[in-house]
Design a protein that fits this description.
This protein is mainly α. The chain is built from six helices and two strands; from the N terminus they run H-H-H-H-E-E-H-H. It comes from Novosphingobium endophyticum.
């Protein structure tokens, strides 16, 4: 007997499940993009966050925005610093929480990974409707920002 798909009582719970599944699938498909960089998942996540940030983030800010433990982000940031991919600078707002800045080498590594990821994405194009992908990206960004605003208000 074939099991029927479980319909969550709340659409957000269904979104969480589908997001976890999609994240796992995308990570496996795009793992080759960072293969030459020797970065692990956590280091890649932190490097992305630092390079793409509008303002230099702290470890705690990255942890909160990614839903990861501060300690995990700190270990990744230390590794990236030791590899010369990011720098830690004094934070005028908090003595013990340095600001993370990408180094030119860190930016180069991130861009090289992005170029390899673009090639992988191009190979997937026949299977994907790019307008759907763009619309989904915008919708997910809007949901994330609403959740973050709600959590900050608490």
């Amino acid at each position: 007997m074939e099991a029927e798909a479980f319909d969550s009582r709340h659409p957000l719970v269904g979104l969480v499940d589908e997001t976890i599944r999609l994240n796992s699938r995308l990570r496996s498909v795009f793992a080759a993009a960072r293969q030459d960089s020797a970065l692990n998942d956590s280091e890649q996540m932190v490097l992305n966050a630092v390079v793409e940030a509008e303002r230099a983030p702290t470890v705690a800010q990255i942890g909160r925005s990614m839903g990861e433990a501060r300690q995990l982000v700190q270990r990744a940031a230390n590794s990236l610093r030791d590899a010369g991919l990011i720098e830690m600078a004094d934070n005028p707002d908090h003595k013990r929480a340095p600001l993370l800045h990408p180094t030119p080498r860190g930016i180069d590594v991130k861009r090289a990974i992005d170029q390899r990821a673009d090639t992988i994405a191009e190979d997937l194009i026949p299977a994907l409707d790019l307008d759907d992908v763009r619309g989904t990206t915008e919708a997910l960004r809007a949901i994330r920002r609403q959740l973050e605003a709600r959590l900050r208000a608490r």
